[in-house]
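Archive maintenance. Older records in this collection stored only the sequence; we are now back-filling the structure field for every entry so that each record is complete. The fields below show one back-filled record exactly as it appears after the update. Entries are processed alphabetically, and ABC transporter ATP-binding protein is next in the queue.

ARCHIVE ENTRY
Title: ABC transporter ATP-binding protein
Organism field: Roseibium porphyridii
Length field: 255
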Amino acid sequence: MDIRLEGISHHYDDFEVLRDVTLDIPAGQIVCIVGPSGCGKSTLLRFIGGLERPRSGRVVQLGQAPEGCLNPLTYIFQDFALLPWRSVAGNVSLVLEDHGIRGTAAREIIEDVLARTKLTDFAKALPKQLSGGMKQRVAIARALAVNPAVMLMDEPLSALDSQTRELLMDDLVDLWSRQPFTAVYVTHNLAEAVRLGHKVVVLSRRPGQIQEIVEIEKPLPAREFGDPELDEPQRYLWRLMREEARAADAELMDV
Ligand SMILES: Nc1ncnc2c1ncn2[C@@H]1O[C@H](COP(=O)(O)OP(=O)(O)OP(=O)(O)O)[C@@H](O)[C@H]1O
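Back-filled structure field:
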């Protein structure tokens, strides 16, 4: 299933947040959204997920969700949002229980997603026994369990230290390489954007408008930590963003 955003504009009272955002999110691609603080990235993600409606424009779903999809648009948040009293497997099971899937059918899905996220040996552990990176892998496993058409990822690595972020990026690349998924990935971090994005959408400062869409040509599975070929697109993105980020920063200080 592809997603198309058509002319999305939004304001809260007279506070304009987004202006005329039109964007295609093709199935099987990771689309990163970057832009200065407060430019409307998370708001855009909420519109895609149907949590809120824009004042004008629309989000169109094109084509069918994948077979076995229980929830076409599934969020992954930066704070993991795990139930502390449930084990790793129990947290994944929860989203299946919500859809009445129990017993063998649930066990098969849970085994599959835990294997894909390298969590098989931790199925019985509780969240408090896990590092931040492991917790986020549980959240990713839980999202994969509903076989979503699109994963909506709002700064999923920003609560983690830099080494853990690198490990999780390796995991996400590995996961995508074995079985491509579709994601909209909001981040402040340009290194993450060039490592994970098939395309990177640069929003201007608020009201967020698309400044440019930068395609990252190198195939995702071939990108590595510290890849010199990603330096140039990262520098280019920063050049695009620098003045907007500076202006947004000054705006926030004036409030
Ligand atoms: N429900 C709301 N009511 C009023 N203003 C809102 C609401 N939600 C968001 N905003 C404002 O809209 C602007 C865009 O917010 P949003 O969280 O989408 O930006 P962002 O680009 O994700 O920011 P950041 O990078 O800092 O996370 C911000 O100024 C925010 O304060």
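Update note: The CA atoms of residues 249 and 255 lie 10 Å apart. The chain has a mean pLDDT of 92.
Entry marked complete.
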